[in-house]
Amino acid sequence: MAEPAAFARILNVEDARRAARRRLPRGLFEYIDRGCEDEISILANRRRLDAIALSPGVLVDVSHPSMEADILGRRQPLPLVIAPTAVAGLVWHDGEIALARAAARAGIPFCVSTQSITSVERIATESGADLWFQLYVWKDRRRMLNLLDRAWAAGVKTLVLTADTAVGPNREYNLRNGFGIPLKASWRAALDVALHPRWAATVMLRALASSGIPTYAHYPAEFRTRLGREALADEVSLAKDVTWDDVRLLRQRWRGKLVVKGVLRVEDALAARSHGVDAIVVSNHGARNLDCAPGPTDVLPQIAEAVGDRMEIFADSGVRRGADIARFLALGARGVMIGRATLYGVAMGGAGGAARVLDLLSTELRTTMGMLGAQKLADIRRVESAQQVGR
Ligand SMILES: Cc1cc2nc3c(=O)[nH]c(=O)nc-3n(C[C@H](O)[C@H](O)[C@H](O)COP(=O)(O)O)c2cc1C
């Protein structure tokens, strides 16, 4: 792993984002960077976070702040988890392994996506990270359960059911860019790749030379050929009939911790609790799915109050600064997932790039805590009557 110091000019997540934009073909960059439909929600997530003021306590000794957090029975040095992001393996060669290595170095879990380009077995063997596994429910539940057996055998102990993607999201820029999995050849895509020769050589040509055109590693082997894909299309398409019955099934079959991701209502949080779920992620999927969704910040306080200590609550969507992590914690989250920020990092420079982003976020969180007079995460408090500052 290139040492994070090699990225000395990258001073914040926005710098990493710009570096990723330079490196990646436009279709791929927009896939990771943008939102959905009119992209109202992505801006709104930013505004909502910015509007949360934190309350500084003065004259507190902050020479030894602790950012330690207890996440699902494990004490970690930081309250963070790297979020599941489909196709991380397209932004860097074996990008999922790179993300997992950065997570391992920071002592935090990495959540592998169902739609990962690298298999959970390889990520486990080659990273040594504490791996979580994110599940999209396939129509064929038998195949889905086989996939869970694979994840368990690879050493995964935490399963994350994503509940906020009942139907395919509307992302028009992907259609305009001709971007999708399986990757399709087009003049536009060829030009896009030709304009980004570093990415073409270090990601696409390496993939072609080793395992062929990159595709979803957890899908059955037949999925790699066109005919096989057509035959399987129905079985491994994302089910639209995912209900609490599936949560019941997963609770029976999964021996480890169970997390439901994408909860935005108090009653759904309480239902998760009553189904024996160990944690929820209050998330609007990084504003990628429902453009009129509330922000996690809008609902987190009510959910935290209703759930109390009976279930762990994590949050994500929009973290670009350590202060954003502090904001989510102040609203009641125990841990925070990081999606695009570490993806920009890995796109800019593999495991070292992702590690640089994690270093920046943790340094910013420590600085924020120092300014707030917070010796530990539980000391972070919001201003109760925060005015909407907007932008
Ligand atoms: C490129 C990309 C792919 C994603 N793929 C998945 C996925 O496969 N499963 C999932 O549950 N969430 C997925 N997400 C959502 C993230 O897990 C997370 O909720 C979101 O990125 C958090 O917002 P942030 O990117 O602003 O940090 C994806 C996000 C991005 C940016």
UniProtKB/TrEMBL annotation:
Work out whether the entry's keyword set contains Flavoprotein: yes
Give the keywords, sorted: Flavoprotein, FMN, Oxidoreductase
The answer to whether UniProt assigns keyword Iron to this entry is no
> Alphabetically, which GO biological process terms does the record hold?
aerobic respiration
Gene Ontology terms, MF aspect? FMN binding; L-lactate dehydrogenase (NAD+) activity
Residues annotated as binding FMN are 84-86, 113, 134, 162, 261, 283, 316-320, 339-340
- What protein name is recorded for this chain? L-lactate dehydrogenase (Cytochrome)
Record the organism: Bosea lupini
